[in-house]
Design goal:
2 helices; 7 strands; seven-stranded antiparallel beta sheet; alpha+beta; Chitinase A, domain 3
């Protein structure tokens, strides 16, 4: 005898909850496609893809700091005036001043240190009264005056003076005859002489 056939089943119905989940999945997929239509979202590269010398370092969290006070602008590198011949004065601007200009008709106040080429110091005004003289009157060696001419108050220069514009073949105290002199000069004050 044959077993009875199974009763005919009712057409299967999909549960509502399954339809709801499928609908949400479709909406999520649509949202991803709209947000990144061409799939250009940047994906992190695996470490193996980085160059061998690259190291991954975690960044420290930002720290709060007080704002620093504004800095004064950095001055351009000092200009250098090389000599056109061994008999010329060499001037190196160590600091460009912003005050009055020393010219041949002015009285100037300077501070300086004088050395020989080997660095031996022969004179300086620091620690005593500054040096005051009138430009264009022949009160100082020619090279010293040439080195100060055009300088502004507040400026500092290194002036290298060949023997021909210094003391020449004369020996002076700590300065041997025929010496090249090096002065670091700071211009403190400029006074204009009254016109006669």
């Amino acid at each position: 005898m044959r077993p009875p056939p199974p009763p005919p089943s009712a057409p299967s119905r999909t549960p509502r909850w399954l339809l709801l989940v499928a609908g949400l999945a479709v909406l999520a997929l649509v949202a991803i496609v709209i947000a990144d239509p061409l799939g250009r979202r940047r994906r992190p590269e695996p470490e193996e893809a980085l160059p061998k010398k690259t190291r991954i370092v975690a960044e420290d969290p930002p720290t709060r700091t007080r704002p620093s006070p504004p800095r004064e602008p950095i001055a351009p590198p000092p200009p250098h005036r090389p000599p056109s011949s061994p008999q010329d004065v060499t001037i190196v601007e160590l600091r460009v001043g912003s005050g009055d200009v020393a010219t041949s008709d002015t009285k100037v106040t300077v501070e300086y240190t004088g050395t020989l080429l080997d660095g031996a110091k022969f004179d300086e005004t620091y620690g005593r009264a500054p040096f005051v003289f009138e430009m264009g009157r022949g009160h100082v060696i020619k090279g010293f005056e040439q080195g100060i001419d055009g300088m502004r108050v507040g400026g500092k220069r290194r002036v290298t003076i060949p023997a021909a514009l210094g003391y020449g073949d004369r020996a002076m105290a700590k300065i041997p005859a025929g010496s090249t002199l090096v002065f670091e000069v700071e211009l403190r004050k400029v006074e204009h002489r009254a016109a006669k």
